[in-house]
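Example A, followed by Example B.
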Amino acid sequence: MAFLQHQWRQPAHINGLLALICFALVAIALVLEWVGGMEPCPLCVFQRIAFIAMGVVLLAGMVVPGRSVAVLTVLACLGGIGLAGRHLWLQSLPADQVPACGPGLDYLLGVFPVTEVITLVLSGSGECAAVDRVLGVSIPAWTLLTYGVIGGLAVAANLRGRRAAGGQ
């Protein structure tokens, strides 16, 4: 039993577990979409991309844990926090201040350059103001919380592992 406890303290194992959580969250979002009928708004899709980016970095951290994994995870995490914060802000607007609904993300990607699509999505639209809840909490609030927890754990694991290894 002590061997298992020691092994799960290794940054590579923690990175693997956190990567699995990131990918599981994206899978849950897909289930909510396909089975639960919750159509994602463009900001939701971008938040999924942030989780995927975090997961990919954390997978790489299974091979080479350390400061770079912590930094890259935090960058993806901060992007996700910004997206979730913007999403929550749109959801908090009074009905008369909600922006008009825009075209879907598929249409935008087919018509506009990627940089303009990003600008349009970040400006928000009416469908992003709709509030879908899981266990009584809005989905962007859950993602905001989750970005913070995963990012914090990734930083702690990868920087602690670095100090434990003698500062390599």
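Example B, a separate protein, is given below in the same form.
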Amino acid sequence: MRHTSLLLAATLGAALVAGTAQARDYSEIRLGVDLPYEPFMYRQADGELTGFEIELGEAVCAYLEATCTWVEQDWDGIIPGLLARNYDAIMSSMSINEERAQQVLFSDPYYTTPSVWVTALDREIDIDDRASLEGLVVGVQRATLQDNYVTELYGDVVEVRRYTGGSEVVTDMRAGRLD
């Protein structure tokens, strides 16, 4: 299961730990996001951001009487971007794990999403039969829990291809470049 948490005030918390906290006006909260992940966050035809996490972030900002500013960041740089203070929090379906918890502060989880294996409709792949996986190509988004999972448990039998974003995985899956 994947527990997703808002990293609200993580930058402030990191600054306090480092002893470098300075007064800051939080009437604007900058939220780091990795697009697109429908239905959680994506751009509408008119360019406006929308989706579950965008709406949730806007609700948090409204509650805090602040304005949300959305900062786009590729996933593999999302924690470094927070630590560099490019934004105040991450609102981008980040799963809580021990490694990340050593770097940033998490809120309580706001939803849990299971990970899934996806293949073409005309394929049958049994992930429990390691021998049948030999030579298959599996796509994952780089620096995710799924990347770690596939690499650790199946990296010796499948070719793992890492992508910057989830949409690239979908594109290669649809094009038949992934099993």
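On Example B: The longest helix spans residues 52-63.
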